[in-house]
Structure formats: C-alpha cells, structure tokens
C-alpha cells in the first residue's frame, strides 16, 4: 500500500483532454470499427447511473461494455436508495465500496461530477450533465466527421437549432474550434447562446458551403416551444427540408444526436437519406464508448 | 456489399410458418429439453422490449438467451427515449444501429410489427401484440401437447374463457386446426369471438371427451368483468372446479398460459394437480424460445 | 426420480443456523476477501426480487453473483405480472419452473418466506422481510466485527437508535448474544423494543466501554419522526457526534447498515472517520453474499 495512488481516468468533459488525447480516442474508435478489438476486461464491472431517461447513450454504453466483456451491475434509480434520500456521493461511494470499477453517470444537474472527481477512487464517465456537456456524444460526433473527411482542419460546420438548452452544442462547438473547424451557429434568437462564441448565421446563407450540418434536438422535455412557434413554423424556418438538402454540397453530411423530432428539426423522409449520418452516428457511438471505457479501465491505447 | 441480403428470420405469427417449420421447432424444443444444446451465440446480443408488463414471457426469453450465451442489452421502456416521444420504429432502428442482433417485442398495439418487418435488418420476435397473437406462447403450448400425446391429429381440445380478448386463443385455435386437432370454444356469450371459426360448446358437454382443456386468463387489466358476473359466478359456470376435473379423462391435461386468477378460471387447488401442465408449460417455454432464438440468430435446426 | 429430495439451502434467518454454521460462513467470507475464490457456477441462474427499494443489498448480491459467474435473470417488480395480481407464491413458482436456481427476495411483509420455504424446490435467500430480519446484513456485520477483533466473546456492543422498526437490530442482537458478546440497546423510549431482551442504556454511559457502536438508520420511509423530535434534536441526544467519538476507545469501531441520514444518526464528517467501518461493511457484504450463494447453490464450504 506504499505505492503512489494513480488518479482515476475520469471522462467528464473534452475540454480537459489535449488534442492529442482526443485524436487518440478517435483513431482508437475507428480501429475498433475495423475489427481490431481491445483486450477484454473479464472480471471488471461497471454501473450505469442514469438519472435522466435515455435509450441511445445508455444502450450504447451497455453494448460497449459487452464488447469489452465488462460486467454490468444494474442500477435503477427508481428502485435505489436514492428514493430514501441518499446523496449522489453516498450512492457512488457505495458502488465503489462493493467493487464497481467505473461509473457512467447521466444527471440533470450541470457539473454534478465536480465533487465526485475529487473524492472517488474510480473513474466517472459523464453520460450528460444537465445543460452542461455530453462528451461521449461529442466524441462519437468527432469520430463520424473524421471517418468522413479524415481531417477537421478547415471544415465548415453549422450547428443548428436549440443551442441554449443543448449540452451537445456546447461540447461540440468548443472541441471543433480547437480542432481547426470553422463553426457557425444557426438558431432562433430566443435559443441563441452568446457565450459559446460562435458567429450567428442564417442556415439558408451557409447551407451551400457547409461540410457538416449538425442539427440539434428541440428539447420538448426541457422547453415548451408552443409559445414561440409551432412545430410546422419551426420546420419551415429552421428545419432541414428536402428543398434545403438539394442545396447542400453532395459530399456534405447531416448529423443529429437523436432522438429526432420527425418533421421538426428534419423532415422524416431525410433521416435515412444517403447524406444523413444519423444512424451511423449511433453505430460509431459504441466504438467511441469502447475507447472511453478502455481508457478508464486501464487498457492501453 | 454485392451479396444478396438475406431476409431476417422474423417470428411474428405462426400463420406465416409452414407446418413443417412448426413441427421442426417443436421437435427442436424437445431435443433441448432432453439436453441436446444448440451452438452458443457468444458475442450476439438481444434486446427485450416489453411495452406491457410480463413475468413469464420476458423472464423465459431471458433464460433462453442465457442458455444460448446471447448477451442481453437491457431495455426499460419507462426510462427510454420512448418517454420523449420517440417512435417504435426509431427505437428499433437505434438498437439495430448500435448492433443488437434481434429484438423481442411485446406491444399493446395489435400488428405493431407490420412496419418493422418491412424495414428492419434484424429479426423481430413477437412477444405478444395487443389482442392479436402470442406465437411463442402458442409454440410452447404445442410443445406441451406434442410432448404428451406425440401427435395433434384427432385430439379433442377445448379453449375456454375470454376468447375475444385473448391473443393466445387466436394463435392457438388457428394452428391447432391446421395440425389436425378438433378444437371447440367454450365461453360466455359476451366473450365469444365468431371470427375464430370455432364451434361454440358448453364446457360441461365436452369435458368428458377432451384431451386438452386450455383455460384462458380473465383479462382483468383489459376487461372489467364486474358488470357481467362476479368472480364466484364465473368460476361456478365456466371455471375448472374439482368436480369438473373428476369428469375429465384420466390422461387428459389442463393448460393455462398464466398468470392464473386463482379460483376464477381454475380452482387454486388444481393448479398443481397431476393432470395440470401449467408449470410444465413454463418450463417448456424456455426450450421453445431457445428454438425461436436459434432460428432468428442463424443457427441450424 | 427415486432419489431422496434434498431440502433446498434456504437462508432466511440466522436463528435457524448453528453457531458452527455461522462461524463457517464468516470464515468463508474472509477467505474470499483474501482472494481465495470459490468454484464458479457457470450456467446457474439467480433472480433478485426486490419488492422494496434498495441499492446496497441488491447491488451487493448482484456483485456476488458476478464474482461467482452466476447469471442473473432480471426481475423488475414494477413491470412483472405482480401488477396483474399474481401472488408471491405463483411468481416464485414460475421462476422455479423456468429454471432459476435460487431467489433473493426482499419483501415488506415480515415472515413472507414461511410459505415459500415449505413449497419451493429452490432456495430462498432473504434480503430483508418487513420489520423482521435481514440476515445477510447481519452476516456482513459479523464478518466486519470478526475481521476486526478475531472473536465475539466478551465484546461490548451497543445497538443505537430506532430498534423497534429495525430488522437489522433484531437479527444482530440475537446472534451477537449467541456468539458471546455483551449487547446493550440505546434508544429513545418510543423506539425501544422490550422483546429483544436487551438492557436499555444511555449511549453516553456506555460509550467509553464499547468495542462496537452499531448505529441504526432512522427509518424515514417507515416512520415519521417529526412528531417526536427534530433531526437536530435526535442528533444531539442520540446521534454520534465528533465529541462522542472522542470518548470512544481508540480501537473501537463505528458501524451503520446505510443508507445513512447524514447529521442524524451520525455526523456527516464521521462517515469516513478512521474508526468508521461503514464503507468497509459494504465491501464485506459482497464476500458474505458470495458465501450465502455458494451455500445455496451447492458449493462446498
């Protein structure tokens, strides 16, 4: 017990990773996609704590865990002692005490992880924090873009929609600029977030020059849009319609973190359009999360 | 990518299978019961999407998956993005995108699977659709009958109770007639379903001649019976009582898909009666679902 | 089928085990902690039926199952047929019929297991019954005490707090006395339970002589304490404060089954105090449950 304790490999924000580390994770993800599998972690266990609903992120981490032969300790918020008032810290410390090797956490409170990363001896993998960040989604978005263009340098990327409530927008805008992309934002004035430091543009003005259109989900569950415009109005003014797709470059791609509101952010008929990467993003998400888990559990890059 | 895409081996209704295929699945189930195990599917994954409550069907598929070393990707409707309005199609397509190899689905909408089987590239295994069908339950019922009598030809079978709301009745009536059994229906007039094409008989008139009494669950959750008759009345007029069992042939068997309403469809004391196959049906259900999964995942018969 | 049926190795109360058996389980747990692993149970399955919320007990059994390579059949009360009125007996018999090898059950009804142990052919492992017992928690408490002191004989142990609603108090008071410890109870008069046969003492009078202070959870979910005293009052009069810890023997230990109400039973700052065994108890719980499962599944001690 005389050895120096190593800091757990938390994964809470891409901002804390160097560009080298980020590029390493992207390339690792794509190696997994090509069938080069990492070492298995037989005997290691992970708990997935989702304090907000999820299909994609949770199931994607679970698939990544199975590929890595990591065992899952099921954690169901609704039937846990959280309902008896147990704090997040005590819940996580309990899972550490029973031997869980890493925690995937989604929580409605932005920055929930600050206390945890200072005190836990096991890594915290952020599956989304309030309106903060969603770094595993950002990583899979980066994997999808890099797989397509083999670079980020000089790419024209428009992030479109509800920027102010989106944790994906925040994570992505920051890292894409660091990686050399030209990023603009397109959104209704009421959903614009000045603090992201993006240039505000009209989608119709930039569409023809974009390499990547990143659509954001209209957050019904966080934000009622009825007061501002109807779904139909939003679709016509800000959504991706078949007419707008016609004006995109043929090699440009469409992205969306999903779940999609069909015919709001994007016409339902475009979700599986040849230029759409919406479902391939989900496929890449499994490989991205394998890279995140491999890093957390002490595997080699 | 030049190869011809093979159609996924959906399992949505016994009506779409030939009698040869059905007999193949029955015999395969019984081989598993005798200890002849199929090849294992290590590395394959299945998600079980239950949009209606279940113990037997869900746990039975889960047990079959474990016997086959198929990994389960847990799917909990209540904490999924379905709560954010995601469609069934988008949810299933998401699971396909993250690499799930087959979907077991129970859904309250009859025929929910029609859209899915035309569009998904992975098999859909129907765990019950509304008041439509419940083909894995039918298969386990067939396995139980065939195990007992080694044939279906000429067997006298009475399906008794709430025919109109029962997806088991519909599946079973159809396939048992195809297999050569004589099937009659016994039910209160208000629960009779003319469209099944069965002869309507009084249970007390056919009891002595039956080889199989298939009781149906009174669907409290779908149908309030209080208006029509009390539980006690139902039991006396339509339920299986110890007196009625006395009049059955000694080699005849009693079946019920469960969960049982004790002392409604059947006296509680008869559930584990020597002629009851209620719990053995559940045991057979695991082997039947192994056969269904083996077929879906590309194993050999 | 001519062989004599062996009685399943239920684990419902420490009262039914001899002191030799209990000491055997304690020593077995500590052997696992030292890395001597039991045989694996590949192919065996366990279902965990929690009719009351839990983090520690459920996750701890699940971790023990994974260490033993026992497969879990997920059971979710909220989406099971229990919601259709299925009885506990029928639910358990169903799981037996589909081939589950052991059941871990937590249920709000004290003594729920009496009917089950007479009828089921698979072992029932009690994860807590109403205000009855919580024998796996007792076993892990014993493991923690024995690990510390290498004996129970002559130890001075105070069980403190809400004795009347605590299933841990009942289990522990009984077994610790059998093992030779001197056990007293410290509690508000309204939470005193004469039937446990303990001497009633004031915590401040016994503190300096105790080897073990076992704090109990104030059961908010079972008992509203607002009428009697505030949280602050309780903490000052009955809780473990930093001042009280100063008066404990330096080698004495603090225990609590958790979840802890911080600053009620114990000051939040003391939970990870050097003399606290609260998180180590959870770690030991996994080893204790491995011993319980190993016994139930037919492994050798």
Automatic annotation (TrEMBL), chains A, B, C:
**In Gene Ontology terms, what is one molecular function of this protein?**
aspartate carbamoyltransferase activity
Task: Name the pathway it acts in.
Answer: Pyrimidine metabolism; UMP biosynthesis via de novo pathway; (S)-dihydroorotate from bicarbonate: step 2/3
| Residues annotated to bind L-aspartate | 84, 167, 217
InterPro entries, A to Z: Asp/Orn_carbamoyltranf_P-bd, Asp/Orn_carbamoylTrfase, Asp/Orn_carbamoylTrfase_sf, Asp_carbamoyltransf, Asp_carbamoyltransf_Asp/Orn-bd
| Primary enzyme class | transferase
Any single biological process term in GO: 'de novo' pyrimidine nucleobase biosynthetic process
**Gene Ontology CC annotation, any one:** cytosol
Q: Which family does it belong to?
A: Belongs to the aspartate/ornithine carbamoyltransferase superfamily. ATCase family.
Q: Please state what the protein is called.
A: Aspartate carbamoyltransferase
Q: Which organism was this protein described from?
A: Exiguobacterium chiriqhucha RW-2
